[in-house]
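Posting for a labmate who doesn't have an account.
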Amino acid sequence: MLASSGGASPDGAGAFTLIELLVVVTIIGILAGLLLPALSRGKALARSAACASQMRQLGLAARLYADDHGDEFPRSQHSAFTHGQRTWGPAVAPYLGASGEAWTNLFNNLYHCPADRRQTPWSYGLNVYFELGPDDDYRGKPATWRRITDVPRPSTTLLFADNASAADHLMPNFWSRPEDAADLAATRHRGRGNYAFVDGHTEALRLRDVFDPASAVDSWHPFQP
């Protein structure tokens, strides 16, 4: 008589049992639990890197603008209209490849941080210190820093930062403690914010690294003691 084959018998012998299926499902669940946080961290890091790259391009565009406009920084909504100038958004757009009315297209890419979930257009804010004049309220008046060459510490003075407000600028001249920085998106990138400095470099830093009066830290104010 012929020997029987090693295949599954008609009564289901050799098929997965319920316990085996539960073990497989449990293993898959454990693997998913391990992988999903890693994927989430990877996406967050990618968004932060893209944001920093965009901010670096904004800083470069502002410097190119200054090269063509007497070494002066572009203005924001804080003072541009008063002085009959364009705000920094349309002002630096030609240096980012967008001219005329097409500058608003930048709200869909370079002007919008991938980690910013808001619907407001301005993911980034210009440091308003570069627009202040003798009539404004700020420490160090009547000194002004309208020109890049007026900034004594370009490598440690902030130009752009992650913005939490609906405006296109940040007003650290009114801050006296870290809690006052409500218009700054200081924790947008896993507890840090992205910052562009006048010299062109960007860094992801904690709020206390750029503003902590108790420790004499203020990277917003261009004033050189």
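Reply:
Got it, the structure tokens are right above this. The first helix runs from residue 18 to 68.
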